[in-house]
Amino acid sequence: MERKLDLDPGAIARSRDAAGNIAEEVLRFAADRTTVSIERAVLRWMGVEGGDADCIPLVNRVVDAAVAAGLLEDGIALPFAEAVRSSGLDPSGAARAISEGRLALARPAPGHEEAARAIARDLAETGSERIRRTNRTRQAFLDRLGEGPRPLLYVIVASGNIHEDTVQAQVCAKAGAQVIAVIRSTAQSLLDYIPEGATTEGYGGTYATQANFRIMRAALDEASEDVGRYVRQCNYASGLCMPEMATLGALERLDVMLNDALYGILFRDINMQRTLTDQAFSRRVSAAAGILINTGEDNYLTTADAFESAHTVLASELINEQIALRCGLKPWQLGLGHAMQMNPFREDMFLYEVAQARMVREIFPECPLKYMPPTKYMTGDIFRGHVQDALFSLASVMTGQGIHLLGMMTEAMHTPHIHDRTLALEATRMIVTAARHLEDEVQFKPGGIVQTRAREVLGRAQGLLEQVRDEGLFGALANGRFADIRRTPEGGRGLDGVLAKGPRYWNPVEDALDALLAEGAPEVTE
Amino acid sequence: MSSDNPPTRMASGVDLHAVRPYGDTLSDGLVQLSFSLPIPPGPEAREAARRLAAQMGLNEPQIYHEADLGYGFSFWILYGKCRFHVDLTRIVVPKIEAPAMSLEEINDLLREKAGRRLRVVGACSGTDAHTVGIDAILNMKGFAGEYGLERYPAFEVFNLGSQVPNEVLLAKVRELKADAVLVSQVVTQKDVHLNNLAEWVDMVEADGLRNDLLMVCGGPRITHEVALELGFDAGFGTGTTPRTVAAWIAHEWVRRHG
After folding, report:
1. B245: closest CA among B230, B229, B227?
2. Burial class for B256, CB neighbours closer than 10 Å (0-12, 13-18, 19+)
């Protein structure tokens, strides 16, 4: 990567060091704990699907039964495998029997323990095999069709009805979209279960369910053949069910998943102990499944000022990067989030935005990065909004961004109408094509506005990271260091779902993940 | 929206009894319009788009752009001449009645008339996660160069954040003995915001708190008129600054209690 900003390599290295220390502290904390959602993810990995008569997922019923029986601190895998062994049922059948009270969860008697462990390992291996197969299918699509040039053009669909979403997704694919994200129904992140089945009612988005993942995957595979490019599917491994979402993503061939505990802590008031523990597991799953993760730093600038707080974005990206790498994710899998959110009437705003976008690019040269369009200063004046989005597209292409979320002229009004996306895609394609090699041609004036701004943001990020290292991440969040929002370690939703691992804790899916990661997740970039 | 704007003036020659859209000549009625149809483009689709525009009240509808969105959808941009007009002199719109006051004037008024800080509770309620509006009004930093209500010594502000269920909001309002509640609704789909606001008013009334509370709502789709229909005391739309809300709360509280 050409260095155009004269950034101090020492400052980058010291910032990364501090972020590494912060990441290690977080992961040490997570390693000693499990959560109800991690254990439910284990069951999903081991093949449990479906819900009970009231549409409560069987994985929730089984884990709740384990909590009631005081078994969960040792992990769900062994008592569940014992239930499979003693009943002779398949995983979903055994889970159903447990939920109906026909089968009890218990530790195996000493004479049955080895047999139960063998069953658990087999079921975990079945999940691994399915994920290997999924990875191969994706790789075959990419080898055969490719996915088009970077930046990957990313749009959202969010009708609430999965069957409308698939139509809109296909129309987007035709217009040039390379990543289709289905926005989840508002507040799904706060549900401590994943709804079951295909859904047609959602608010502000469509429920993420295993069935909806499959329906969208089929529609995108069809569109991929139609347009002769592989179209990536994106959803959310976030909220209270983060580990389960990552697991469903791995099983159902999602390609991109939003995954950021800090976002959930700050913007959804999810308990930090819960979601940082969940995140460590879910990132390992995404690493093994070749899923590209997106982080949510861009959102900081929707509450904090984009000029004053630019350094908090960089600091958080470094923390996210260091956590992710230690979970086995590779740099090509890290769509670290940032955004263009300054007041468009600020003099030289475009220069500052280019400085920040290029700075992130140079500090994370191997990461695709996820660049978010303006939202804060979008007004309902769709004509002005279209121009703001055009400025954003120009900044994106001239700074070499990897994943480009398309701005919608109807941002701040409603979930996009079918033509809003096509108009955005056409405009963006025009700009990135017209300026395809602008990045190669542009140099920045030594000591000019762009270089000065980038150096200043890096310097402040280093200061913040050293402060966060001293306070600890939990302390820093309690002191409101990110997004001007304060959160405490005991506050927020989901703390009651966190358990200290017992001395006999055993999780064969962790072993399966180790094995998959040792094999090396396939690199699916072009 | 700000009182600093130059006074509004009328264009000359306009018949206020028959106002119609203006393109480049008075009363030409010109309107621009775009929409998609769930049919592929083609001669029949073109005629269908034209007829739809005619049925919307546009004379001489003219299609300037048609595009194939794929998978059976088409996109259309049209212009036409609106055949309707409205009588401006017969229009009455309820407006928020509050004098323009400065931060200091609001504080002084409440110090004198209330003698205590008014407790203001704000939330982005229901399923809405978009706190940009409520934050702009309440947070210290404020919006458009004006400080938010947290900055006013006259107010004690409790911003409950996003996705607050109405039940939780009601419990908080009771617990905090709120004087005013601000509910924000930004992003909506299929009118979920209206249902949520109506439910909120019903719950407050059922709980017997209605008369003790100044009930306010805000958001891009909120007008004062809509707010009154829903049973609120005031509604504020896009572009409302914190001072406007602060002045209304102060003025209205004093009117009721002072």
Report:
1. B227
2. exposed
Do residues A434 and A397 touch, judged by C-beta distance below 8 A?
no
CB atoms within 10 A of CB A351: 16
Q: For domain B103-257, which architecture applies?
A: 3-Layer(aba) Sandwich (3.40)
Pairing of strands B214-218, B180-184: parallel
SS3 A236: strand
At A168-213, the pLDDT tens digits run 999 999 999 999 999 998 778 989 999 999 999 987 789 999 999 9
Q: Nearest-CA neighbor of B130 among B185, B204, B193? A: B185
Beta strands in A7-101 (DSSP E): 33-35
Q: Does A414 touch chain B if contact means CB atoms closer than 8 Å?
A: yes
**What is the phi/psi pair of residue B29, to 5°?**
75, 15
- The domain limits of chain B are 12-91, 103-257
List the structure tokens of A305. Answer: 């000022």
Which of B71, B78, B222 to mutate: most A Cβ within 10 Å?
B71
* CB A253, CB A233: distance < 8 Å: yes
Stretch (H or E) spanning B37: strand B30-37
Smallest CA–CA distance from A202 into chain B, residue: B189
Cα–Cα distance for residue pair A396/A408, rounded to 1 Å: 15
ipTM of the complex: 0.90
In sequence order, the 6+-apart residues with CB closer than 8 A to the CB of A434 are none
Catalytic residue list of A: 263, 298, 370
Question: Which pLDDT belongs to residue B139?
Answer: 84
A354, A338 Cβ separation under 8 angstroms: no
Question: Is the C-alpha dihedral spanning B162, B165, B171, B177 positive or negative?
Answer: positive
CATH topology of domain B12-91: Defensin A-like (3.30.30)
Q: Do B135 and A303 touch (CB under 8 A)?
A: yes
Of the candidates A329, A328, A281, A290, which has an alpha carbon nearest to the alpha carbon of residue A76?
A: A281
Q: What is the pLDDT of residues A51-106, one digit of tens each?
A: 999 889 999 999 999 999 999 999 999 999 999 999 999 999 999 999 999 999 99
The contacts of residue A132 (CB under 8 Å, 6+ apart) are A516
Contact (CB, 8 A) for A353 and A395: yes
